[in-house]
Amino acid sequence: QAIGENGVGVKQASANLSNFNVVLTKMGSRFQIGILSASLQQPEGVVIPSYSLEEGCDWLQEIEQLCEKDDHFRESMMHLGGKFCFLKGTAEAQLETPATLDIETQMQFLADGKERLHELMVYMSQEDGDWGSHECVFGLLLDQLRIDQSADSLLRSLRKDLPKTYLHLTAQTCDILIGNQPLIHQYWERRLVELTYFPIKISRTVGVMNPGTDLENPSHDANILRVFLGFDTNRCSDNQEQSSACMYIYSRECGRLVKHVGDARSELGLSAGGTTFCQGLTIVLDDFESSLPLTPTKQDIAYSDGPRGDIHQANVKAWLRALTTTYYNHYQTIFGSKGGLTKEVKSHSKSSRSMAISEDFVTPLRDYRYFNSFQGHSWARRMGRIAISKKQDAKVIYGDGTLMKFTCAVLPEPAPKKAKPARESIDSVSSLVEPGDRAAAVVAYMSHLSRRTNTGKISYSESTLTGNGSYPMGEQPMVRARSSSNATTPQSAGKRNRDEVSDISPKLKLKFQSELREQREQKELFESEVAQKEKELERGRSKTTKLFVRNEELLQ
User: pLDDT tens digits for 506-548?
Assistant: First the structure.
């Protein structure tokens, strides 16, 4: 009871760290004491004694009485007051016990141990001290460390790992001292660049790809998960650490980190090639409703314990993949490349390290509404995955809780699309030239394409037309756009049209040249046929004249 819920974690950790441990809990003015000592363990079974000191009693007197009545407590106080080690020189190292000491030394260690325990209790109860103002206090004393590192090194490791392990602890809810210094909370808030919050509602029994269900608001046995995404600038800058996407899953059921995936790209179905989804990308999943079932050791998620565990697991991974892809692609688009994104993430390393040792107030993750968020978008099912409907609709709402932001975190405005002109063809201008003059229509159309304005309207210079509406022999039709500029003169129209032919695309140019060549050949053929007819007519006239002269001669 003094150790906590079953005490499995504390017992195992304490036994691995040291040979003698004392657990103290204070509830009001009532104390409970638990002893975890290696010397008390016997082959017959595990011995973990616990004791209660009632409210309002003399603590030192109670400790004296416990030493007289309980041999285990008496031996524990000797351990607390003395220094013990492993005996050397035997076939197998044995733990030194008070029984190996003389009576005088035992009594001195016992007196020192009782005094030390009493001082700890007074320290935890003083109103002007660090703990006296708190109703409930938990303390763990590690003595006779078994690890290779020193006590100072162990305390530094605890100071580093505790904030990352316990996501929901804050300086406002829990005071923790390590080496008489307050623990600095809000690990991820001080470490992640562009820390962004995504709420997702996930059904535990119906798949997200089921078209008959609401994708964003499922109504069948659904729970809300909080997902935080950001770029770990320290991990990205350290060449000794892996910069690929990491995932951390926290559960409120046990109040701590339950799973860490060093490279979550394969597990979430993301591209794992090269540096995609790297740059210290970090995924933090907060199961604040305790909807994810845990294994007995509370070190992994036990989806199989649920009614439809396979569906539940697939839904969680599908949403995490969609959120991670949307978040990463958004910032990669801003900086244009993965190299540009990497450079920007690394630039915040110095400010992150300074914040890691600062005791200034930082907005905790539980106040999720103060962090960056994506709004204005909707989700859709695409090719068996969840994807954002329209990327341009997603807008980042910046929050004051996100301490580190990119210097340029705005998507570039898309270039305005040019209005497409009305589709035109040679037939659309053939009516403006001499009927049947296909060659003139082709030239007019080519000129129109090279000089078209935004309005797409054209007009012809009437000064170049003859009385019957046809062009003079040998001149090309001239086309000009309706504008306020001076019109082109008829004398320069032919030369300009020839120059403008080179401005159009090669494919279109070849097409028009081929058609123009065909029209010219047809015209030459027609002209040769006309000349032939004229020659035949002239020969006929000559014959008629000769016959007429011959007849006149005969008549005479």
Answer: 666 677 777 788 888 888 888 888 888 888 888 777 777 777 6
- Angle at CA of residue 260, ends 258 and 265, nearest 5°: 140
CA distance 49 to 521: 115
3-class SS at 289? coil
For the beta carbon of residue 153, count every other beta carbon within 10 angstroms: 12
Return the closest-CA partner of residue 184 out of 165, 206, 214, 162.
Answer: 162
Contacts of 412 (CB under 8 A, 6+ apart): 334
For β-strands 246-251 and 256-261, DSSP reports them as antiparallel
Angle made by CA atoms 21, 24, 25, in degrees to the nearest 5: 150
Q: What is the phi-psi region of residue 275: left when phi exceeds 0, alpha when psi lies from -120 to 50, beta otherwise?
A: alpha
Residues in the chain: 556
Entry pTM: 0.62
**CB of 36 within 8 A of CB of 15?**
yes
Q: Which residue has the higher pLDDT, 102 or 129?
A: 102
Query: What pLDDT band is residue 466 in, cutting at 50, 70 and 90?
Result: very low
**Mean confidence (pLDDT) of the chain:** 77
Residues paired with residue 181 on neighbouring β-strands, in sequence order: 178
Asked if residues 81 and 112 have their Cβ atoms less than 8 Å apart, the reply is yes
Residue 528 · residue 469 · CB < 8 Å: no
Closest CA to 402 of 368, 374, 360: 368
DSSP 267: T
The two structure tokens encoding residue 454: 């935004």
